[in-house]
Design brief:
single chain, elongated, TIM Barrel, alpha/beta, 22% helix, 17 strands
Length: 336
Amino acid sequence: MTKHKRYMLFSNCIPVKGYKRSIIYDLMRYDYNYIPNDLYSILTQNRGVIDCTEYYSLYKNEPDSIDAFNEYVDFLLEEEYIFSIDNLDEKLFPPMSLEFDSPSIISNAVIDLSSNSHLPKIIKELESVSCNYVLLRIQVDANLDYLEETLEMFNGNIIFSIQLVLTYHHSFSLEKLKKLIEKFNYISNIIVEEIPETFKNAEDDLVHPISFRQGRHQENYKKNFVLNSKIFTEAQHKNTFYNKKIYIGKDGEIKNSPYDNESFGNIHTCELKNIVTTNSFQKYWNTAKDNILICKDCEHRYMCIDQRRPLKTENSQWYFETKCEYDPYTNDWAEL
């Protein structure tokens, strides 16, 4: 038997049901735990309230069910997902709002930069749509001086977070890149690709916002899990990969993403705001995972940033043509 009579799920710990198993999304600690669908039912049948007395009475002739229930409660307490509400009104603890809103027309931009001479125009256009986050992929053989010159162009504008992806240059070292981050504090992290095998990272074991790769980045759906309140609430209503996102190619072409072929114009000759506010550009923004075949049965659907382009069947159902590495009907991961 449990110590208390009534417990309640913390509002930031939200159970999500999959076809074969469920997940508790711990949005405050950016973590998650798989749970059986039976436990999901217990957690959701009464707005997150667990009434132990009621459960014991209901299953008094089923000792195995009582034992399983007690194990569930012990697990929830150990993980700090629930708290006691003996003699308290559960209405004092409202659920977390799942509303999503963003003041930006475009929130995130991926830019493949072949020449920083075009950057002032790009930054001006991004400011016109209130873009705050940029993934900047430098497409030239850039040394540290070139990087500083490029980053100085972002000073004094509304873009407050930049992720840099660079190709290795012999002038790079961990210490010099750390100084670059200190100078330009809006750099969130730096990824250096194609490092030589002889390159030595003296602080490999330390946690810092700089990483090194010997090859180019390879997509992996499992690594595209992002767990926080913003993504969780956005995923209730929108496609978290396409919604309010833009890609600007090395020649200035404007696309929905780096993986799409359709170009909507060129950043050097067009006004960005006129393009991104069209229905054709926003056609994938509202394709939430709850409306996509297979994904709607997946327990990861509110944390998965999925770069695949949604398509429609003849009867207007959304689906993905390429197969995901994860199968929600078997809970298996496969190498594709």
